[in-house]
Structures are given as structure tokens and as C-alpha cells.
Write a structure and sequence with these properties.
- Helices cover 39% and strands 20% of the residues.
- It has a five-stranded parallel β-sheet with strand order 3-2-1-4-5, sandwiched between helices.
- The chain is of the alpha/beta class.
- The chain has one domain: 3-Layer(aba) Sandwich (Rossmann fold).
- Bound molecules: adenosine-5'-diphosphate.
Length: 155
């Protein structure tokens, strides 16, 4: 049976920190499905189309990486995508506190759905979507933080 992991997030934007989790996840799983979750109430800074372009560019259309968009319960979507595992990254204790609760709830929603955590690579630990979004809003070049340059998507 294929081992599929579902990697959920807002990915606004998808950063080098996220790409690192996917790359390392590919050593554990046959397939990683990146789920871009959009909260109806929250307006995105980067469009879904642009983020999908960044992800495709970063993984060079690797057939083991798929991208989906969703607006539903993460655990339910993971199950529908054929994933028995959720993949998440941990940077610090704040991430841990949050993830701990979410993982318990997700396992209650879908029995047996295991969350697998990968500890961040230290050099990528300071990268957060919130900070990258803020820098971009102030016109700072964010190419160092993304796994694929935005400029290439426009050309
Ligand atoms: P969410 O809105 O669900 O927190 P994010 O898009 O911010 O989603 O992050 C998705 C996942 O990636 C989370 O598990 C988060 O902890 C992890 N993550 C974010 N940045 C990094 C990083 N620099 N290194 C490792 N994991 C990260």
C-alpha cells in the first residue's frame, strides 16, 4: 500500500522551510500531497495560483508531489486524498503547543490518522510565512526565503 502523507498549511507563502519538510518527507513517504488550506474569512496575500507555481517550480513536477486546495476539515481531506499520515514541521515550543492539540483532534476525527513531525533544519527555523509576507508587503526582496523565484513565474 502506498504511503501517502498530507502536508497541510496556509502556505501564504510556501517558503524554503516548507520545501525542506516536503523534501525530507519524501524520504519517509512514497508521496506527499501539499494541501493549501484556505480559510474563507482570511484573505490571502499570495494567490493560490502563484503558490502552486512556486511549489511546482520547486519540485520540478516530481510525480511524488501533488498539490491540492481545500476549504474543508484537514483530517477529512487527508483521508479523501488517501493519506494515512499528516506531515507537519516543528520550529519551537510554540509550534509544539499548537500542533499537539491539533494532532490529537485530527486523530479523533479520523481514526488512525497519525501526525508525523519533522524538526526544522536550524538554518531555516527563523523563516515564517508571516514574516515573509510582511517583508513582501514593504517591498523587500523575498527571493532568499522562497524555494522558487516569483520572477520566473511571470516570465
Ligand atoms: P499553518 O497556517 O497551518 O500554521 P503554515 O503554512 O504556516 O501553516 O505552516 C505549515 C507547516 O509548516 C506547519 O507545520 C509549520 O510548523 C511548518 N513550518 C513553517 N515554517 C517552517 C520552517 N521554517 N521550518 C519547518 N517547518 C515550518
Amino acid at each position: 500500500m502506498k504511503r501517502t502523507a498530507f502536508f497541510p498549511g496556509s502556505f501564504d507563502p510556501f517558503t524554503k522551510g516548507h520545501a525542506d519538510i516536503v523534501e525530507r518527507g519524501l524520504k519517509l513517504f512514497d508521496e506527499v500531497v501539499i494541501g493549501i488550506g484556505t480559510n474563507q474569512a482570511k484573505k490571502r496575500h499570495f494567490s493560490l495560483e502563484i503558490m502552486e507555481g512556486v511549489i511546482r517550480g520547486a519540485f520540478n513536477s516530481d510525480p511524488r508531489v501533488r498539490v491540492v486546495h481545500y476549504h474543508d476539515l484537514t483530517a477529512k481531506v487527508a483521508k479523501d486524498e488517501g493519506a494515512r499520515f499528516l506531515l507537519r514541521g516543528l520550529r519551537n515550543t510554540t509550534d509544539f503547543e499548537y500542533e499537539n492539540t491539533i494532532a490529537q483532534v485530527n486523530r479523533q476525527i479520523v481514526e488512525g490518522l497519525e501526525t508525523v513531525f519533522l524538526i526544522t533544519s536550524p538554518e531555516l527555523a527563523p523563516i515564517s510565512s508571516t514574516i515573509v509576507r510582511e517583508l513582501h508587503a514593504y517591498g523587500v526582496d523575498i527571493s532568499d526565503y522562497l524555494p522558487y523565484p516569483l520572477e520566473k513565474l511571470r516570465s
